[in-house]
Amino acid sequence: MPPTESNMPAPEDDTGFEVVPDDEVAEFGKSSRHWPQAQRNHMPRWVQGWLLLLAAGFTTILGIALWLSPYNADGSPRLMATHTQMGLPPCNMVVLTGKPCPACGMTTSFSLLAHGDVLASMQANWVGTLIAVYWFALIPWSLLSVLRGRLIGVRNGEIMLAVSIGIMVVLMLARWIVVILL
């Protein structure tokens, strides 16, 4: 016999979800019923630790960028290979193929930007300039987020991280394809 309204069992009231009045939904996160007092306006210590580590890391990168000399002996800005001042070898891709890798010019770009030479930084690697501006902006953001106990202007830190990495990778690859084709 096919199911009809008369022979169908009544739906169960227990769906596994708690019915919460609309006024409580708007206050979710503020009600002690949903979130313990200690966690309502305070991020976990491990998140604070990561934010402080992020700020320290980007501050170190800024310090190294200031320490490096992104200029040739004649005073003209370099376009790449500034990283060799730290004892690192030249880019293997450039050595083997004569073509730059996606990150070529990134250190030089960071260093030129840290020295205030924005135009030369863009010429060395415009994606590096954008990434450097973003990373340097994350220093005060991280510190303020720790002080306020919440991520400033961000609803979900995991999504922010994933989107940031995705955008950086896409921009680096797009720039690299253009450089290779020219």
Helix coverage percent of residues? 55-70%
Termini separation: 72 Å
Q: How many structural units, i.e. domains?
A: 1
User: Could you tell me the number of beta strands?
Assistant: 0
The whole-angstrom Rg is: 26 Å
How do the helices and strands follow one another from N- to C-terminus? HHHHHHH
The number of helical segments is: 7
Give start-end ranges of low-pLDDT stretches.
Answer: 25-40
Shape: globular
Average predicted confidence as pLDDT: 84
Largest sheet: none
**Structure class:** mainly alpha
In percent terms, what proportion of residues is strand?
Answer: under 5%
Your description of this structure?
With 182 residues, this protein is mostly helical. The protein has one domain. Helix content is 57%, strand content 0%. The protein contains seven helices and no strands. Helix 3 (45-67) crosses helix 5, helix 5 (106-114) crosses helix 6 and helix 6 runs antiparallel to helix 7 (157-181).
Strand and helix map with partners:
Blueprint: H1 22-26, H2 37-40, H3 45-67, H4 92-97, H5 106-114, H6 118-148, H7 157-181
Helix pairs in contact: 3-5, 3-6, 5-6, 6-7
